[in-house]
Design goal:
Helix content is 16%, strand content 39%. With 196 residues, the protein is α+β, with helices and mostly antiparallel strands.
Length: 196
């Protein structure tokens, strides 16, 4: 009977050691690589909705079209990278131009203000109404910065139009892992949804 209780005791220590290792590993991963993000505004609608919970990847290379979040903004402020260092960016109505090349657009069949924006090989949805769209008259992006825009390109979200130093960008948003409506109901159609 003594050998049996010794074996049970050893197994319990092993289980606790595994649980502790998993917790410490998750904590280390959160500090260094992955961070959970909570969306509380509609600035990135239709890509990210208020009530979405996203995952961000820290210290990842940033490219045009990436959704990023900014350091030291609580809650996390998110926007899309439109202009890279040295780019000349213009936004007239809902039409975006980078270095003289125009983005391509496809209107949504379901909603008159939703359109698919394509720059190069990347494509994403934006909300834009030509009557009250953001205006960005020709702006050169400084060499150490990015130009960020919200996906909801409506005049009320003008704060999302900003030139941000590269060192203020914390990382890339990978996707939505969970989502709740304002009534705290799960939006199942948004679970594990990519932002690209």
């Amino acid at each position: 009977m003594n050998a049996m209780s010794s074996r049970t005791s050893s197994r319990a220590y092993l289980y606790w050691a595994i649980i502790l290792a998993v917790i410490l590993g998750a904590w280390a991963l959160r500090l260094t690589v992955i961070t959970p993000l909570r969306v509380i505004s509609s600035q990135m609608s239709p890509t990210l909705l208020s009530g979405d919970f996203a995952l961000g990847w820290k210290n990842m290379a940033i490219h045009r079209g990436d959704v990023v979040w900014l350091q030291s903004a609580e809650p996390a402020e998110m926007a899309r990278v439109i202009g890279l260092p040295g780019d000349f960016v213009e936004l007239t109505g809902c039409e975006l131009s980078i270095n003289g090349g125009k983005a391509r657009y496809q209107l949504s069949q379901d909603h008159p203000f939703i359109r698919r924006e394509t720059i190069g090989e990347k494509s994403w949805s934006i909300a834009c109404s030509p009557e009250n769209a953001l205006i960005l008259s020709g702006q050169r992006v400084p060499e150490d910065s990015y130009l960020l825009l919200p996906d909801a390109r409506i005049d009320g979200f003008a704060a999302g139009n900003q030139i941000v130093p590269q060192d203020k960008v914390a990382g890339r948003v990978l996707g939505v892992w969970f989502s709740l409506t304002p009534q705290k109901e799960v939006r199942f159609y948004r679970l594990f949804l990519s932002v690209y």
